[in-house]
Design brief:
By secondary structure, this protein is of the alpha+beta class. It has helices spanning 2-7, 20-34, 44-48, 105-123, 128-133, 140-152, 156-165; strands spanning 49-53, 70-75, 80-83, 100-104. It folds into 2 domains: 14-42 and 109-155; 47-105, no CATH class. A hairpin with a 4-residue loop joins strand 2 and strand 3. It is elongated, with a radius of gyration of 21 Å.
């Protein structure tokens, strides 16, 4: 009997408004089994941050205190870019007041790899239209949040049915 349960291949249907609650539970379990569920709840900065330089004088960490093997994430109002240590600006070049977030390169690579795994799992279970939405979001976390908000909204038919029942 245990062999029957193990050999049973769970078939997760394509995401729809009718099955969204079950779909999110099953995909969450699938992502958890792959060890990548954290990418839908945790940002790259939360996962790989080592230090923040220039945020405030109390929180400032000198570059000498930051270990080798890190990248820098320049945070500004316009965009975010990740710099490797070789392309780190010198003090003379860095005249902006934006805080710099130092990331552990190994954790960053792991996070990006895990994002790819999460996208692979999710794309197998989404319609072509929903897959195309991924291009509009920078992270798996943003994409997951969008899907949840899109499919958690009750349909007009369901809303009318609930109103009649009340």
């Amino acid at each position: 009997m245990a062999d029957d349960i193990i050999s049973y291949n769970w078939r997760i249907p394509v995401l729809t408004k009718l099955n969204h609650e079950s779909w999110f539970r099953q995909v969450s379990a699938k992502l958890l089994s792959k060890g990548v569920k954290y990418v839908v709840t945790t940002s790259l900065i939360e996962y790989a941050q080592i230090a923040v330089v220039g945020a405030s004088e109390e929180e400032t960490t000198t570059i000498e205190e930051v270990t080798k093997g890190i990248g820098i994430l320049e945070i500004s109002a316009k965009s975010s870019t990740v710099l490797t240590p070789a392309s780190t600006p010198t003090a003379a070049e860095s005249t902006t007041t934006a805080a710099r977030v130092y990331l552990n390169i190994d954790r960053r690579k792991q996070y990006e790899k895990d994002c790819g795994t999460a996208y692979t799992v999710m794309f197998q279970l989404l319609s072509n239209e929903d897959q195309a939405l991924a291009d509009e979001y920078k992270t798996v976390q943003e994409f997951w949040s969008h899907l949840k908000s899109k499919f958690d909204k009750p349909s007009k038919i369901a809303a009318a049915k609930y109103q009649r029942n009340l």
